[in-house]
Amino acid sequence: MCADASDGTHVVTAFLRHRGDVLLLRRSDAVGTYQGRWGGVSGFAEGDPDEQVRTEIREETGLEPGDSVSFVRSGRPVTVDDPDLGREWIVHPYLFDAAHREVDLSEEHDAFEWVSPTELLGGFEETESDEDALETVPELWSAYERVAPTVRSIAADDEHGAAALSVRALEVVRDRAGLLVAERAEYGDDPEGEWDELAALAGRLLEARPAMAVLRNRVNRAMADAGEHAADDAIGAPEVLDAASAGLDRAILADSDAAAAAADRLEGTILTLSRSGTVLEALREGEPSRLFVAESRPEREGVTVAEELAGDESLECPITVHTDAAAAHLLSREAIDRVVVGADTIRHDGSVVNKTGTRGVALAATREGIPVSVVAATDKVSTREEVNLESGDRSAVYDGEASLDVANPTFDVTPADCVEEYVTERGALEDEDVGDVVAQLRELEDWRE
């Protein structure tokens, strides 16, 4: 897409996200407009905005798109009329995920901060006066809203695991609560109305991905915690904002702690499949001597995992990618020490819902006497007796013209007796421990009553 300057001055703005926060840069005296104001990674779109935004990221942060930074989505342009400058800006917003927070600023900026996006609405939390409040470039929040996660984007996401999508869900709640807090300055306080709106939003998120218990549990915890910290039962946007923000920090820490606990077990030859962010982190922290990675059709996210691990200089071991169908054969022929998988859901009876292919691998591993470790935070334990297993697009299996029925299940269920251990942020759980976690998580559901 080429930018046509006849309808305004086209610019790109990229929001780099890491662990729920976004990167803001303060514009220096070296730039021509908005000196001293905070914004995203930005620049004039003299040609294709999709190419220009990657150039700006590279030049302004030192981060390399495709390596340290991965594209998430772009949004509809935002038109910004600035009468003081006599210019109309056409802002093309983008969202990227950053692998870390190390930034090398260019001369165009003199400071940077990683902040919650809600701070775009009213300043940094630590400011003590209006004079110190965060001043952004015009309509920065509007640009962010065009690329921020939504219920729809979470429901449609087939690239990320359950833990990552649960964090996105908490971001949705946090962002909306933050906006309602900011709107109090104009419309006044309405705790009951705010709660009704946020509760309805949380309800939609709860059913967005029915197979992902972690999303429901983490949203439930945020809403339940908001009620516990409210004064005089007046639960409104501020309480939900605080609870969702705290829930984000807790969720990210739980996933990291589960990965760290699993890393201690990852020695020798490991076989894995699908894409679990927690397993990926565990593999990077562990010391496997060799890795086998099933490709995980139809999206083949296993290939992406293998490529990421192959590019990680800290992981020095041979990596073999193979078809899903070859997993049982390799388990019978290779000296594989352990199968390590993630989980979208751990059911109350200890069975595990995960990417299709997990059941077959676990059954084959059990046949060969190879232990199977499931790595997941305790929030992935389901409180429901039954789990709705999602299905993928039929065209991923068959797009011909013959009159055929197509089965393309996205998830399958691995029996509990095929799992040696559940490695969580609390360490390894036994089968009987799962029931205790279920009871704790069911208490969080009372906020809807």
Automatic annotation (TrEMBL):
<dbReference type="GO" id="GO:0019509">
    <property type="term" value="P:L-methionine salvage from methylthioadenosine"/>
</dbReference>
<dbReference type="Pfam" id="PF01008">
    <property type="entry name" value="IF-2B"/>
</dbReference>
<dbReference type="Pfam" id="PF00293">
    <property type="entry name" value="NUDIX"/>
</dbReference>
<dbReference type="InterPro" id="IPR037171">
    <property type="entry name" value="NagB/RpiA_transferase-like"/>
</dbReference>
<dbReference type="GO" id="GO:0046523">
    <property type="term" value="F:S-methyl-5-thioribose-1-phosphate isomerase activity"/>
</dbReference>
<dbReference type="InterPro" id="IPR000086">
    <property type="entry name" value="NUDIX_hydrolase_dom"/>
</dbReference>
<dbReference type="InterPro" id="IPR000649">
    <property type="entry name" value="IF-2B-related"/>
</dbReference>
<dbReference type="InterPro" id="IPR042529">
    <property type="entry name" value="IF_2B-like_C"/>
</dbReference>
<dbReference type="GO" id="GO:0003743">
    <property type="term" value="F:translation initiation factor activity"/>
</dbReference>
<comment type="similarity">
    <text>Belongs to the eIF-2B alpha/beta/delta subunits family.</text>
</comment>
<keyword id="KW-0396">Initiation factor</keyword>
<dbReference type="InterPro" id="IPR015797">
    <property type="entry name" value="NUDIX_hydrolase-like_dom_sf"/>
</dbReference>
<keyword id="KW-0648">Protein biosynthesis</keyword>
<protein>
    <submittedName>
        <fullName>Translation initiation factor 2B subunit, eIF-2B alpha/beta/delta family</fullName>
    </submittedName>
</protein>
<feature type="domain" description="Nudix hydrolase">
    <location>
        <begin position="7"/>
        <end position="138"/>
    </location>
</feature>
